[in-house]
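Q: Could you predict the 3D structure of CxC2-like cysteine cluster KDZ transposase-associated domain-containing protein?
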Amino acid sequence: MWHSQILKLQRQGKAAVEATHLENLPNIVVDEEFEALGFDMPVTEHNLLEDHAHALDESESNWEEDGEDEGLLKTKEKMWKSLKREYKDFRTCRDQTDRTWINFKSQLDEITTACMDWVYVEKHQPESCRVPKELMDLNVVDIFGSSTEETPLFKGLIYDSSSIILSGLLPTTPLSHKSAITTRTVALYHSLFVRCPKLGIQPSVKALCDAQGSLFKPYLATQMSVAFDLYVAILNGVCFRVRKALGCDGPNWRMLNCCPPCQYRLEGEEKLPVCMLASFDGNDSLKQVEHTNDCKHTGAEVGTALVLGPSREQIDHYVGGGDNFLQPNEVDAWDEENWEFVNELDFEDGQLSPERHLWAEGQCEERWHNAKDKNTACSVGKFLECRWFAFLCQHMMLLIACDMIRSSEQSKYPLSVLNRYMAAELEERKVTKEGRPEGALAIAYDIHCKFSKTVKQSPLKNLVEWCNYLPVIGTMHGYAHERAFQLLFLMLYIVGTGIKDGEPCEHYFSVTNALAGITRHQSIFHCRQAIAEFIYHQDNFETYSKSSLFIYNNYKQALGLLKTRHAVAKAMKESRIEATETFYEWLVEEGEYLHSLSKAPPEETLEMEYFLKLEALYGCIKCLKEVRIAWQNYIPNGGHNQGAALEKKCWNEMENERKLIADCQVLEWKLKIKDQWMEDSEKWCVAKKMLEGLLVARMFEMTRLNVAGTGYKMRKHIANALKLQSKSIQSAIAAYNETAAALSPPRQCVSWEEVLEFSYLSEFDILWDTREDIRGQKWATQKNRMLMQEFFKLIRAKNELPRLHVEIRRLFTYMRDEEQRLNAAAKDLEETDPALALQVILHWQEHGCFNDIHCWRLLSIKRLDGFDFSNNKYFWPGIAVAKEAPLQGFDSPSFNNDPGSDVEEENDDNDIEGELDKALSVATDLD
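A: Sure. Here are the predicted structure tokens for CxC2-like cysteine cluster KDZ transposase-associated domain-containing protein:
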């Protein structure tokens, strides 16, 4: 019936009415089955047959081929496209995703070119020279609404995806196209994501649906995900082309040039004791769950342990992360099992340096969870990647990172990133003919107590010595180490480290942890892609934009500390300290004292163990006697019979007694004890001596708890941190209390809360009974130790200014050179590749937009109270290393309304300046 009506309308030429009747046509369902083998179409893609004659039999058709008007032809085409089709796809999700990116990968080069051309057209509006060959109907999703649009397909392009991109759209499938998302929509989500990583694709798509008043459907999120991945791939392709045009496409170029204040070296600049400050650490907040099959029991019986089933993670042929991450095989090469050789450390008596003493006798490894191999060799079974190990400079620019796969923070991760960075640094310095760096490469790490020993034993030893590797610990993690280690590696006591805290990783991870919500269940590729995109934005927009502010704040803080030199000089006179060398002598004396307490003699340790065994034995005998009497005197009263329980308890106590007697006999044989000790023995001093070593070291670290200016919340925060990381102290306190209570008469016990309330060593009455009372030593008095802290802060502030002057000049030079170099490159490319030339300009604008604020902040340093105007020479650009001649055309940075002489120079006290200069020379010799 409907067929004859359309035929009649055709003869009358009423195509418009035909379209109206077309809306009432029933849906025709076409079932097409595809075989799984040999099917290479991507997800949601199906080639439509060009010959549609099977829909209506041509032999029985009454359609007239001649004389059809144009409106009727379009209506017939729309009628065919409106037919509902159902496809049966036998491919797995892994095959679909894999083939999608295989098909997109072959198109990326042409797609990237098309995107660059579209940006150029949108920017400059030139006359289009492309000729469309046909039109394609697409369902387009946009911020302001969705509609069906006709998209031209241009001649000369291999893939239809390129034509779609030239129209400002991003395809959601690589081959057969039915829908697309506008580029501005995906770009908006990308900008929102790098600013707020918690915003996932699904909630953003739901927000678009809510704004347009439509129902959310899951396939929309899938399409947005594909379009977003393609958009990121295009951005990476454009970035690679720009770097290649600038000659910056080396595999290590970004790592060696990401931070201008740290790495943009200049000719003739001042040599620093520490040429660069960096830090690395692991972070497990971005764990990735491994998708596995059902868990299985390890045994046949029910209730046995469960093990994870085989992994069903999908294989990603497209590797994300760019040059930010090391490959797993490069990391595994530095596993201790794969070392070609091990450098043996000589620990002969009389030849140990303080550092080697700590490696041989230090107790830090017992305190740190991630310093023990048994805690880092494996991870929670359900996590494939326990996330990443990051290597940052002091300004929080990411140098390199690696994934921690099925393990926690093992030594192979810092070794691999050190090898990558130092090997690249060595190669670059050979090219520039700079030679070996004169200053040290100071790297802060929370478990350097163990890792510094590992580095000396590893095949990396020669390379780290060439780079002048200097292990240090930051201020936050430093107070969790034993005091002897702090004296050697705490940044407060190391010349050239300045006033930095050495904890950039903690600040960095507090920002990147926002990614945890979306990366936990993503694939490896999407995890790396999300991290890489966030890192790129964080480094180039957030961190770089604040680099001048970082310098300004440190300069201001250093000048503020230098103002305290008069107070320090006055306090030195009151304490009758004639020379600054006294402070360094005190550090040596403190280190020697702590070293004498680092380990109790083996005989005393055995005596302590013997006493505790005796105490347990006496308690067991007493308990056995009570239980035996209760069992013998027990009379059942008709209720529940307790006789069997008492008998079992009696036998248990008898067995414990036999074991303790055997242990005591073994210790008596080792100690050559003839007569068993009694409860009134005086050997309890062994426990007291061990407690002294721990408490004295910890009290030096907890000085901050009760000093003036430390608020209640800060004191509680420090106390809780020390409590979590001080199990050794709590064990010593428990051993002391257990021994003191067993004496006759019992001695006074101490608690952890009482330890936290003690302001200093003078409040420890327990130390009166030890072998050596140190409270009378000058270096142990509270006043002198506070003065010593202020002195070293003053020295570090003095060290900070030369470093800041170098960073200021580097940043000025970088801004000048980068502007001229990129503008010159864009000018050269303007005639041959104008689209690439525009991308070079846009690349420069990422950093160039901050030049004005950088100049304003850096020149504002001259307004600071205490600024020395003899340092004006550092506020001019210099010549970068390997530059044959200075670039011309850059004027000196100017500052409007520069106060100039309005800022008075501070009169320096000649005496204290002389002492500080002398202290600096002594510190340099000690270093």
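Q: Anything worth pointing out?
A: The two ends are 100 Å apart (CA to CA).
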